[in-house]
Write a structure and sequence with these properties.
Blueprint: E1 19-20, E2 29-33, E3 38-44, E4 47-50, E5 56-57, E6 60-61, E7 69-72, E8 85-94, E9 109-113, E10 138-143, E11 158-163, H1 167-173, E12 182-185, E13 202-207, E14 210-219, E15 230-234, H2 239-246
Antiparallel strand pairs: 1-11, 2-3, 2-7, 3-4, 4-9, 5-6, 7-8, 8-9, 10-11, 10-13, 12-15, 13-14, 14-15
């Protein structure tokens, strides 16, 4: 029986206040086409990084790769573009530390594609960071998710710039829930954020002149609310895990 798509769970529903992307702006952007609405990031021609919570909903486990097609090189999710590549998933590996019943810690997963993506101006991997983006760094988050906070999914790829927030400030806002494997980005006043359907997608920061996958859209309280920044998986903490689970020093 076919599984009907659903939004990710309310506590992790995570672009509001952003702009429409053009083809080639974010060649690393992936869209996960399957039971849940999520994004991802191409980090190698054969691998996409996303959030662990994208594979669980109400106790259901969707880690079977047969559920998923990965779409690359697109900006319109409801139409076929000649730049688009649709590749089935060959395997899904979720971090063993992730617990679907708790606040999303270790919220990272990697998808192996059934065949390597063709790299061009519209489909290209994003580098992994060797160090964390400093506080105040203006980074960009992109996705096909909710643009209003009311369940209105974007009709095209959207993006918004948000600054990395000081860890102590964020932990104050989030009542101490921020672990060493998370970080925050957003404005104290809200207004710009990732939202439903953006989960698993990239927060890209330019470090030393190179765009890097600094964060993975993970969770938050609502979308773009004052005092409620977006919470992202801290990719620097998972470089060795990603290398072990891809076989590449990506």
């Amino acid at each position: 029986m076919a599984v009907e798509p659903v939004l990710d769970p309310p506590e992790v529903q995570r672009i509001i206040g952003g702009s429409a992307a053009s083809l080639g702006n974010f060649p690393w952007q992936a869209r996960l086409d399957g039971p849940l609405l999520c994004g991802g990031t191409l980090v190698h021609p054969s691998y996409v990084v996303t959030a662990a919570h994208c594979f669980f909903y109400n106790g259901q486990d969707y880690t079977n790769p047969g559920h998923w097609t990965i779409r690359l090189g697109e900006i319109y999710p409801n139409s076929q573009e000649n730049t688009e590549q649709a590749i089935n998933a060959a395997s899904v590996t979720v971090h063993s530390g992730y617990n679907q019943w708790a606040t999303p810690d270790y919220d990272i997963a990697v998808i192996r594609l059934r065949h390597a993506a063709s790299i061009n101006n519209y489909v290209s991997p994003l580098s992994l960071p060797t160090y964390d983006a400093p506080d105040g760094t203006n980074c960009v988050v992109s996705g096909f998710g909710d643009t209003t906070g009311n369940g209105n999914l974007a009709s095209r790829l959207m993006y918004v710039y948000v600054p990395v927030m000081n860890r102590n400030t964020c932990n104050y806002y989030m009542n101490g829930a921020i672990t060493s494997r998370m970080f925050c980005a957003g404005y104290d006043s809200g207004g710009r954020d990732s939202c439903q359907g953006d989960s698993g997608g990239p927060l890209a920061c330019q470090l030393g002149g190179t765009w890097t996958l600094s964060g993975v859209v993970s969770w938050g309280n609502g979308c773009a609310l004052a005092g409620n920044p977006g919470i992202y998986t801290r990719v620097t903490q998972f470089r060795s895990w990603l290398s072990q689970n891809t076989g590449y020093a990506i």
